[in-house]
């Protein structure tokens, strides 16, 4: 309200000095000397009020909109045990919670969608309460976590459950060594929620009706083998702890992992990758043992001149509430660096308005927007992917809306294990067939890596070419020739 009055007063030219501004700004002790200072003439028009909505966070009680949670008080809702215990982890539990609250046709659509999905479902009460159940088909949170059969598209011929070839670069189960100085450690295969678009659909979330998964159980002997490999490779300076999700580790297990990694002399940077702050932010505020362990190890690392930071994964502002803000404020006050990595998802954050608001709201709560990923080429979620052309245009539109260090880099983690490439750094891109060709010399000089747009977004000519299986190899060969890379080995899945 204060912000609105201030903008209105400025727009009408009422304010002559700082003391005239609404909201008693000049009463702030450190601003009293400005009270009688004349405000210089504006060189910019007053901003539209909607451009400041990223500063607004929904407060308590929003979960009570769902009948099943109508009587749940704040203390109960803020308990991670309640969040875990009441997470939806199957069609029957979803029906039990929402029958009579949403249309029967939607319930049946979800049930069929779950039978066909490569990922099991697991959604916290927090996330469920962030969904607009008056229009669930178009809600950006529902789209990410709860499949419906009616929107599913046929998979592109070059989709895979392990599109990044992580298993190929694993010296021991649960460790990926692709870049020379970086490794990915996967201590477990469970998460507080399961994203439909997970790049590790091959392992995370347990077996489904359509996918048999091996997974990464939290076994000490497996961890020791990974630690031994890391200790034996002096070129590795950077370790990402992911999974699964480190949010699901006990405080003692988290301490054990971070203590060992800090003890390896050549490891300088440790990144904890977690979806947790976006889907169960209250854990940071109420699971004191886990949060204190994280903060203590961050401080211990700093004393050793090593960095431990948290990389999280917000995709839209609908995931964010005052609980998220309070959790991120706490980590900021304790000196924990938090960066965000979003995935670009159709209907979730692929508009300028949605992405701009997300970037600015993350910045407002001291989370640095770091990466926006082009959707990986994983099976079962083709309707979520965007065309490269549209993603590049989106980056063009959001660049400049805020400071450069808070503007994310838009990248594609190219299929086949080539690593991250700036979206626009392709060697060639055919907008008709949707084939883009990338090189990644630091990973492999002899390979060309191909990304493919979703077929439903291509012009008719491109859709017709992909409809003829006999043309598939020709499509790829033509793109490689146009890129001048026909002598390289092509990697696409």
CATH homologous superfamily assignment of the largest domain: Aldolase class I
Q: Classify the helix fraction into a percent range.
A: 25-40%
Strand order of the largest sheet: 1-2-3-4-5-6-7-8-9
Number of strands: 13
Q: Give the CATH architecture of the largest domain.
A: Alpha-Beta Barrel
Please tell me what the overall shape is.
globular
- Give the quaternary arrangement of the chains: single chain
Number of domains: 3
> Which fold name is given in CATH as the topology of the largest domain?
TIM Barrel
Structural class: alpha/beta
The CATH class label of the largest domain is Alpha Beta
Q: Roughly what is the average pLDDT, rounded to an integer?
A: 91
Number of helices: 17
Which ranges are low-confidence, i.e. pLDDT below 50, for 5 or more consecutive residues? none
Report the end-to-end length measured between terminal Cα atoms.
Answer: 53 Å
- Radius of gyration, taken over Cα atoms and rounded to an integer in Å: 24 Å
What proportion strand? 5-15%
State the major sheet: 9 strands, mixed
């Amino acid at each position: 309200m204060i912000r609105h009055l201030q903008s209105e007063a400025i727009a009408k030219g009422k304010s002559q000095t700082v003391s005239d501004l609404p909201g008693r700004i000049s009463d702030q002790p450190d601003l009293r000397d400005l009270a009688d200072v004349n405000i210089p003439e504006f060189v910019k028009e007053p901003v539209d009020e909607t451009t400041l909505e990223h500063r607004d966070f929904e407060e308590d009680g929003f979960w009570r909109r769902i009948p099943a949670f109508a009587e749940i008080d704040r203390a109960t809702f803020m308990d991670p045990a309640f969040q875990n215990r009441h997470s939806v982890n199957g069609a029957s539990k979803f029906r039990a919670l929402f029958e009579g609250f949403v249309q029967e046709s939607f319930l049946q659509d979800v049930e069929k969608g779950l039978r066909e999905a490569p990922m099991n479902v697991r959604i916290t009460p927090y996330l469920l309460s962030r969904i607009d159940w008056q229009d669930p088909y178009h809600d950006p949170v529902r789209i990410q976590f709860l499949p419906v059969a009616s929107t599913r598209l046929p998979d592109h011929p070059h989709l895979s459950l392990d599109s990044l070839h992580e298993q190929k670069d694993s010296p021991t189960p649960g460790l990926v060594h692709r870049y020379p100085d970086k490794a990915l450690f996967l201590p477990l295969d469970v998460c507080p929620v399961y994203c439909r678009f997970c790049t590790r659909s091959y392992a995370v979330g347990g077996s489904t009706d359509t996918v048999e998964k091996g997974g990464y159980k939290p076994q000490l002997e497996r961890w020791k083998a990974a630690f031994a490999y890391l200790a034996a490779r002096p070129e590795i300076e950077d370790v990402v702890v992911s999974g699964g999700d480190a949010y699901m580790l006990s405080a003692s297990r988290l301490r054990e992992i971070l203590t060992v990694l800090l003890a390896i002399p050549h490891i300088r940077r440790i990144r904890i990758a977690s979806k947790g702050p976006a889907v169960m932010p209250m854990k940071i505020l109420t699971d004191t043992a886990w949060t204190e362990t994280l903060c203590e190890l961050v401080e211990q690392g700093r004393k050793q001149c090593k960095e431990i930071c948290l990389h999280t994964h917000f995709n839209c502002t609908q995931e964010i509430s005052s609980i998220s803000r309070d959790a991120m404020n706490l980590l900021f006050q304790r000196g924990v660096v938090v960066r965000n990595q979003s995935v670009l998802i159709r209907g979730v954050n692929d508009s300028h308005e949605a992405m701009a608001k997300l970037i600015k709201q993350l910045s407002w709560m001291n989370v640095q927007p770091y990466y926006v990923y082009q959707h990986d080429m994983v099976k079962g979620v083709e309707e979520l992917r965007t065309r490269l052309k549209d993603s590049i245009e989106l980056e063009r539109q959001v660049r400049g809306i805020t400071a450069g260090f808070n503007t994310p880099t838009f990248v594609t983690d190219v299929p086949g294990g080539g690593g991250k490439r700036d979206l626009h750094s392709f060697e060639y891109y055919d907008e008709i067939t949707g084939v883009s060709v990338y090189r990644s010399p630091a990973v492999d000089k002899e390979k060309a890596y191909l990304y493919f747009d979703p077929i439903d977004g291509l012009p008719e000519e491109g859709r017709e070419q992909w409809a003829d299986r006999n043309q598939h190899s020709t499509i790829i060969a033509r793109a490689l020739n146009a890129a001048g890379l026909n002598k390289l080995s092509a990697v696409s899945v």
